[in-house]
Amino acid sequence: MTSILERRQKLLSPSYRLFYDDPLHLLSGRGAWLTDVHGHRFLDAYNNVVPAGHCHPRIVAAIVAQTERLNTHTRYLHDIILDYADALLATFSFPAQATFTCSGSEANDLAIRIARHITGGEGIIVTENAYHGVTSTTAEISPSLGKSVNLGAHVRTVPPPVAGTDFAAGVRSAIVDLHRHGIRPAMLVVDTIFSSDGVFSEPAGFLIDAVEAIRGAGGLFLADEVQSGFGRTGTHMWGFERHGVEPDMISLGKPMGNGYPVAGLVCRPDVIKKFGSNIRYFNTFGGNPVAMAAAMATLCVIQDENLMQNAHSVGTYLRTQLARYKHIKDVRGAGLFIGAELTNGQLASRVVNEMRARGVLINASGPNENILKIRPPLILSNEQADMLNDVVGAALEVALANE
Ligand code: PMP
């Protein structure tokens, strides 16, 4: 009989990459847990797509109910898109309008179009190991894809905000360099938790000068909240809020529908006005009633079950526990977005594999892949955090013994 791996190889694009040498074959999920075909349970501490936990009954019910009633597109009137936009926009402290898409990449792609339309500029500034999407324009601003994808000639990279460095100074130099090449800056894009750069969260406020610099050069500021949004960072609904800045545009995705594909771009009304009056935007599936029902139920669960507060308390507890391991050089992050820095990528890879063998799923990130990236569902309990922490300890011990 052909194995599932052979079938995949035969049927799917070779662009797909699996996690682990011995990949997981999953059957079901519930809460923070995943179960594989052998009946083994895994604590999912990596998936930033299910803030409410896998298959949350209230969200499943909302998707089913709307699927049974109506699913169509945004060129007819329906209430649910407005009910959701109302609830979503109420989480921002400034006036804004929403455009819905199917993926974070589409949201960032749209932001690029808007920024270029509004500013007349082309130049885009991103961090050195950023990831912003799969479309050709967002891949061009995603240096983490490596050398196989060329950065656009209009793209400049800046060092991530490693502790003590002046992030805004990098942005100012990039602006000077763009001008030297005759390119007008269109925008600065920042994943506000710097997920693929290696998770940089402190000190809160370091974005203020950078945002001022890009605005001074006539460009816009896009906060990519695909990773950091919807309460994950614990103290605020949105990652940029920790830094006391007000973006021109905010892209949303991953956790927005607790697994259902729904994403979007939120813009200040003056920013979207000029683009929207000149250019028609229709995204066949973006903002469809079922997507909106999924997003609405997800937001309600995040708010009603106090998941942001839970991310703060359990995240703070977990980070304190992890900081006790002397082989972890640094523990960074906010809420339940945690980066734990090891000395090298090989060690991190061994830890990730040893943890899987002990029933906990995480991964590594950063340019050297030496940062353990830990992003459990926001429902994580203190007991589950203890288990995760114990497994990190056991995995570290075995991985270090093999160094
Ligand atoms: N921005 C960031 C910061 C991301 O992490 C991702 C996905 N990993 C994206 C954008 C793209 O989102 P999607 O995969 O939904 O297109």
TrEMBL record:
It comes from the Bacteria. InterPro entries: Aminotrans_3, Aminotrans_3_PPA_site, PyrdxlP-dep_Trfase, PyrdxlP-dep_Trfase_major, PyrdxlP-dep_Trfase_small. Transmembrane segments: none annotated. Keywords: Aminotransferase, Pyridoxal phosphate, Transferase. Belongs to the class-III pyridoxal-phosphate-dependent aminotransferase family. GO terms for molecular function: pyridoxal phosphate binding; transaminase activity. This is Aminotransferase. The keyword Transferase applies. Pfam families: Aminotran_3. Its cofactor is pyridoxal 5'-phosphate.
